[in-house]
Structures are given as structure tokens and as C-alpha cells.
Amino acid sequence: MFNRHRLKRKWGRGIEKVSNFLAQTKSHDRVLKDFAWHAIKQNPLSVGHQTKKRFKLLFTILIVSFLAVLMVGIYHPFFYVNKVVATGLQRISQKEFEEAILGIMDYRKLFFLPGNSYFLVDVEEIKNILKERFPIESVTVKKSFSATLSVQIEEKISTLIYDNGKEYGYLDGGGNIVEIIRQVGEDEWIKKTLTTTSTNEKGEVVEEIKILEAIHTPNTRQIVEEMGDYPILFDKRSQTIALNTSVISKEMAAGIIDWFNLLNKKTDISFGHAVIEDGRGEGEIITGAGWRLKVKLTENVDLQFVELQHLLVKEKINLNSLNYIDLRYLGKVYWQ
């Protein structure tokens, strides 16, 4: 006979057993309650301690990661500067110049840091050393990620080519002969001759050529190709030259270099060569077009150049039909 009260008690005991079993397996999540029950609060000191530990761990990870990235950036060969692109070189050897730059970076900073690392290359240091080693007027150094150094320079001219009509030599900035290059060739003279004829005793016609005048004009293009792009000075005094002897003053050498730079860089007038006939400081500059500038080489070069620029703009002179411009007297300019 079915007894529902008996079945109810049986189901009730089963549910109680299951409930007790589940309560035992999750005892750490169970909170005992009584009539005065309230939620258990955590110790605030315990929470702060755990937060500090997590912060220290995170900070340590960040520091280690930063140091790892830094070490890779400094020591990995990918970041070593090993290529130099130099522009503006005319007289300085390209190979010598680029090798010098690589040599400047090839050292250890603080005994263990590679000087050629992209992040440690000091462009100001390179600029200063280059100015000490080479005749440079200005230099710009830029780093290009990740292994290239770009160097733009403007060379300083401290050398002249000296021509006394017999020999060519190099002058330093003080006007002293530092090297004798070669003799002036016969083909570098323009000779005016007179041909006469006569009859000898045998009745033969004899032709005689007499040199009336010999004019030497430096072949500027040939000299530049052979000796370098330096200012050329033709000294008509026919001085004998020897090593380490002075042939012109320091002021005259500086003036010729200044005119060379001003004409070639700031005008469309090309500097051909300079000519002097004495040591008083005056001379002529033969331009590439053939007309002449009469100037004072030892003083007021900048002021003379300003007057030249003013004349070319104001008067709009036709340079193709020009014979000369005389700038020797400040405030008074003559031309023909």
C-alpha cells in the first residue's frame, strides 16, 4: 500500500544528505550564520600588503623590459651606423673623408658602450673633429635611421695656384710656396711673330721667324682639371719660386680667396684667374667671360663687392659687351 508520508520523509532525508555533502566540499565559501550574523570583513592591512606586492612585481617587470629594449638598441648590429653619405666634396678625397668619419665613431664610450650605435652617435662631436682635421667652412651632420650618417659640407679654401710664367706651385693661406707642381708649357704662351725672308750666298731663300711678343695666359680649365679647383694667381713679376718662400702677402692671398668665393657663390660671374703686376695690393680678376675686374686685393673686398652688385642691378650692364669694371675707388665705379 502506497504511503505518501513515508515517501516524503525518504525524499527529505535524501535531499538533506546531498545538501550536507555539497556544503562540506565548499566549506571555504560557506559562511556560518547565527542570529547576529553579518558579512565577514577583510583586514585592510592585508589588502594594502597584497597591492604593494603586485605594484613591486609590475614595476620590476617594466624596468627589466626597458633595460632589455635598451640593450638591444645599443648593442644590436642592426643599429650600428656603418654607412656615410658625404656631399659637397670637391677637393677633399671622398674615401679619406668617409673613412675618417667611421673612425671617429669606432670607439667605446665609458669603456663599454659602442660609439657607433645609432642612439649614441654624437653629431656635434663629429662636426667639431671634422673641422679640426679638414679645411671645412661649414658642416651639417644628420642621422638617418637606422645605420646611415648624412654629411653636407662646404669646403674652406686655404690654397692658391701660383703661376709666375715659368712654373706652377701651390700657395698656402699665408702666401708661401708649399709645393712646386710643374713648369709652364710652351703651348701656354701666345706668341706674336714676324716672318722675314732673305737670300743667302747660294741664292736660296731663307725664312726667319722673330718673336716680337710672348703673352702667357693661364689655361684655367686645364689647370683646374689637373691641379684642383683653387683660385689661380698669375704673377707678372716673374719671381723665382722655391719651397717655403713667401711670394705674396697674407692679406693678398686672403683677398684673392674672398673674391673667388664671392663671385662663384653669389653671382653668375665666374672667377677665371687673378693677375698682379706688383705687390702694392691692386690687381685684376679675369672673369670666365673674358672681361676684367680691377680691384684692391688687400682691403675692403666686401665693400667693393657690394658696389659691384649694386652696379649690376641698377645699371643693368650687358656683360657680353663689357671690357672692364673698376672698383678700386670706393664710392666711384667706372666701367667700359
From TrEMBL:
GO terms for cellular component: membrane. InterPro entries: POTRA, POTRA_FtsQ_type. One of its GO terms (biological process) is cell division. Residues 79-156 form the POTRA domain. It is found in: Membrane. The chain crosses the membrane at residues 57-78. It holds the Pfam family POTRA_1. Keywords: Cell cycle, Cell division, Cell membrane, Membrane, Transmembrane, Transmembrane helix. This is POTRA domain-containing protein. It comes from Candidatus Magasanikbacteria bacterium RIFCSPLOWO2_12_FULL_43_12. The lineage of its organism: Bacteria, Candidatus Magasanikiibacteriota.
